[in-house]
Amino acid sequence: MRDVLSMFRALAVGLALACLWHCSNRPTEVAGGGGGSEAVALVGTVTNPDGSAAANALVRLRPKHFLSDTAAIGGGSETAGMTASIRNVRTDAAGAFRMDSVKRGEYFVEISDSAGRGVLLPAVIAGDKDQVGLAKASLKPTGSVTGAIVPPEGFAGRTWVQVYGLERQVKADSATGSFRVDGMPGGTYTLRAVYSAPAVDAREIDSVSAVPDSITDIGALRLASFENENYAAWPGSKRLYLNTTAAGANVPGSVDDFPVLVRLDASNFNFAESNGNDIRFSDAQGKRLRYEIERWDSEAGRAEIWVRVDRVQGNANAQFLTLHWGVPKAESFSDGRQVFNAGTGFAGVWHLGEYAADTTTSDLYQDAVGYDPASDRTASADRGGVAGHGAGFGGTDYIAAPVADPLLQPNALITVSAWMRGTRSGLLGGTLATMGDSYNLRVNPNGTGRFSIFNGDAPLGVESAKGAMSLLDSAWHHLAGVYDGSTLSLYIDGKPAGKASAKGAIDYRYSPAFVMGKHGNRKTGYEFLGSLDEVEVSGEVARSADWIKLAYENQREGAKLVEFRP
User: Fold this and answer.
1) Any idea of the CA torsion for 172, 178, 182, 185, to the nearest 10 degrees?
2) If you average pLDDT over residues 273-299, what whole number do you get?
3) Residue 518: CA count within 13 A, CB half-sphere
4) Distance from first CA to last CA of the chain, Å, rounded?
5) Given the DSSP bridges, would you call strands 288-289 and 280-283 parallel, antiparallel or unpaired?
6) Residues near 119 by Cβ (< 8 Å), separated by ≥ 6?
7) Architecture field, domain 7-140
8) With left for phi above 0 and alpha for psi between -120 and 50, is residue 429 left, alpha or beta?
9) pLDDT for position 513
10) Residues 153, 258: Cα–Cα separation, whole Å
C-alpha cells in the first residue's frame, strides 16, 4: 500500500471512510436480515476466559488490509479491499454476534471488552455461502508491540505506526522514534510505518507476533527516501535502450505506464559488483523509476527486474533507461505495487516464482498489485517459467486467491493474460485463469485458445481459429483476452487471434474465487496440465493491441525490446 492513489481508488476510499466514521463512533446492535446475491451473514460466539458468555463485547470488522486514517499526516487513508464492509456490533447476552450483508473479502474480526481482553478472528467471505460461522472464541489479555522507527538523515517530522486490519495508529516519539501499540489481541500482523514527509517511503514490517499479556519488541527500523537518492554519486551505470522498431519489438504505437522486463545475466552485468539491493533505474530526464526484482541470483548470474516506464515510445530505438548500482549499503526499494499499480489498471499480477514443498501453503503466491495473494494447491515440481520461475500443474493442481476483491471484479472492461506451456488439457479444456464463468481464459482440447465472459444472460466467448497453431505443442505461448464493453478479443503471442461481439456488464453472482489451473466454479473437465507464468488481470481497462504485443515481445525468449549497447 502506498500513498500514490488513483482517482478511482480515492473515491472508493472516501466511501469506506464515510462508513468508518459512522460505524466506529456509533456501534450498531446485533441485527438480522439479508441483502443481495453477494450478501453473506457473518456470525460467531465469544466467551470470557472462565467460559461464561462475553456479553456486550465490541466486535469490529475491518478488511485484512485496512489502514486507519492517516489524514493528519497528509497520507490519506486506504482500504485495500475497497469494500464498504466496515462496521461494529456488540455481542448479545449469550456472547453471540451477527453481521449481515458482508461483501466478499478477507477480514480481521477483532473482539474486545472493557477489561482489556481481546481475540482476533481472521474471516474469509467468498460469496458462495449465505452464512459464514466463525469458530467459537475466548477472550484473553491483550499484548503490546514496541520498537523504534529511524527516519533518514536530514528530515524533520513525525512517524506514525499503523496495523493492517485493525483500528490502530500511534505516533512514534519525536526524539527517539520509539513507539508502542497496546491492546493487540494475540495474532500475526503487518505493521506500516509512515513519515510525515512525503519524500520518505513508508515501510511495512511483516510477520509481527502479538502475544497475549506480553510485549513484543521488533527493534529499530530505518526509513529511507527513494526520491532523494543521488544516482550521480553511484559508481556503476549502464544504458538500456528500448527498441520498438521493426528490428526490435516492432510495436508502432506508444504505450503508457508499462512494466518493462529487464533481464540481467553474465553477458551484460557483473554480479560481483552488486547484491541487488542497490539496483536502481532512471529515464533520460533523470527521473527515478520504480522497480520490482522478481529474481536476483548472484550465484547463477541471473536476474529479472520489472521497471515502470511512463511511456514506451512506439517505432523508436533512441529511448533509453539507465541502470545504476555500486552502493553496497543501499536500501532495496523493490516493490511490485509501485510497478503494477492499481491506479494504472492492474487488478492482479502473479509472477508465480514462489515455491513450497507442500500443497497447502496459504497466500504463497504474492500478488504484485498487493491485494490478492494466492494459495498453493500444486503438487507438481515443475518450476519452468518465462520470467524467473513459474508454476506447474499436473491435472488436479490449482492456485486460488481465496476471495476476489472488487479490483478483480470489473464491470465491463477487462484484460486477462497468461503465459502457458502444455501438451494436453482436461476433457473439456485447460483453464489458465478464471473467475468462474464470469470471465475465463483457457486452452481448448484441440489446442485453440478461448476467452469468455458471462453477462447474466448467457456465456459469450471468442476462440482462435481451428487448424491454426496449436497451443499444446510444449512451447511457451502468451494468451490475452480483452473485453471492451462491446467486443471480445483474443490475442495469441502478441497477435490478434479472434474477435466476437458482446455486450453487457460482467455478472459475478456465481464466482466464489479467482483460480488458476482449474475451473473457478469447481466444474470438472477443465483442468490444465502444464506450466503457467505471469498471470495478469487488468480491471476497468481494455489493453490496446500495442500494449499486448509489447508485453509479448518484451517477455518472450529471445526478446529484442531491451538492448544493452556498447
Assistant:
1) 110
2) 97
3) 19
4) 39
5) antiparallel
6) 46, 110, 111, 137, 138, 139, 140, 185, 186
7) Sandwich (2.60)
8) left
9) 86
10) 33
Say if residue 4's pLDDT is above 60.
no
Q: Which amino acid belongs to residue 131? A: Q
**Residues with Cβ within 8 Å of residue 387, at least 6 apart in sequence:** 261, 263, 294, 304, 351, 533, 534, 555
Phi (first) and psi of residue 453, to 5 degrees: -135, 165
Measured between alpha carbons, how far is 367 from 383 in angstroms, rounded to an integer?
Answer: 18
User: Which regions of the chain carry the CATH code 2.60.40.10?
Assistant: 7-140
pLDDT score of 39 more than 90:
no
Residue 307's pLDDT band (cuts 50, 70, 90): very high
Query: To the nearest 10°, the Cα dihedral for 261, 264, 267, 269?
Result: 130
Give yes or no for residue 142 having a pLDDT over 80. Answer: yes
Residue ranges, comma separated, of all CATH 2.60.120.200 domains in the chain are: 346-540
pLDDT tens, residue by residue, 437-464? 999 999 999 999 999 999 999 999 999 9
- From residue 508, alpha-carbon distances to 11, 86, 259, 375 in Å are 22, 22, 29, 21
Question: Are 472 and 422 in contact, with CB atoms under 8 Å apart?
Answer: yes
CATH no., domain 143-227: 2.60.40.4130
Given this model, what pLDDT does residue 104 score?
A: 79
Query: For the segment 187-222, what is each residue's pLDDT rounded down to a tens digit?
Result: 999 999 999 999 999 999 999 999 999 999 999 999
Topology (CATH) of 346-540: Jelly Rolls (2.60.120)
Residues 297, 162: Cα–Cα separation, whole Å: 33
Torsion of CA 6, 11, 17, 23, to 10 degrees: -140
Nearest to 422 by CA among 532, 556, 534, 530: 530
Give the span between the Cα atoms of 450 and 497, in whole angstroms.
10
Among 53-57, 105-109, 291-295, 508-512, the range scoring the smallest mean pLDDT is 508-512
**Start-end of H helices in 340-391:** none
**Where does the chain hold its CATH 2.60.40.4130 domain(s)?**
143-227
pLDDT at 13 over 90: no
Average of per-residue pLDDT values in the chain: 89
pLDDT single digits (tens) 143-175: 999 999 999 988 989 999 999 999 999 999 999
Secondary structure class of 410 (helix, strand, coil) = coil
Residue 557: CB atoms within 10 A of its CB come to: 7
